[in-house]
Amino acid sequence: MTDHDTLNGLEPALAAGKTQGIEVFPGVEVSVRFKRDFFTGTLHVLTYFPGVLLNDSGFVSRFKTLLSAGRGQGLVRARIEKINEVFGPGSQSPFLSRNLTFEDIAAYSDNASRRHFAMALEERLGVSDKNTITRIIGNDSPAYLPSGVDLEQVKGFIKTEPVVAVLAHPAAGSFPGEGHYKEVLPPVEIVERLLPEFLDAGVRGLEVNYPGHSPEHRALLLSWARKYDLLVTGGSDCHDSTHRPLGAAGASREEFEHLKQAVLL
Questions:
Q1: pTM: predicted TM-score of the whole model, two decimal places
Q2: What is the mean pLDDT of residues 4-25?
Q3: Which of 29, 44, 144, 221 is 20 to 30 A off residue 165, Cα-Cα?
């Protein structure tokens, strides 16, 4: 189980799993930002580790220091200011009836993601058109500021800490239809172009089994895994019980055991 850029839910999850007799395998989904001429945006790296490391104050502190560079109130406020500048009342594209505020976003989460911005735009500012929301917060938006940590920072952490890194949902940006899984991730061709950099950073696996991956893309990702001798994993990317339910996709028992063995070595 991983969450975006935070360790805060892991100890409660491990405790709940122990109570219910369910093995909980912990990790963190780290956001990695890119600002390139061919791609501006964020990709995700899943970092798995033994649960006992949550008792290691040094490991936890170093991980939190890494994550703090990618999110936080500073990034949220900067994004809000840019959105208001480009799309607020009086701008050249006045899509908003009023300026977005920090309180609008903070009402949803202290660790705000793009999903919380989308919810605030729809529920608090009345922007109901999904295409308009994407235009405001998507990668191609003139107001877009990518979140996440620079890949070099992630590389330093992966190389020095006992974590196993897996590239999350590499083909989700090429999902061939409408849905939450496509969102604003780049097409698989962009991910393939960046793959050598992820491998150099220490990524050892690919999340192949994923609800937003077509059979053709799963076959492509499996070919990458064979070519580079990578672990094969899976996940549902559960964000809620309606649009992204738990258990929609996942690794096989064999794939999970291979990942577990790699983490516990």
A1: 0.79
A2: 96
A3: 144
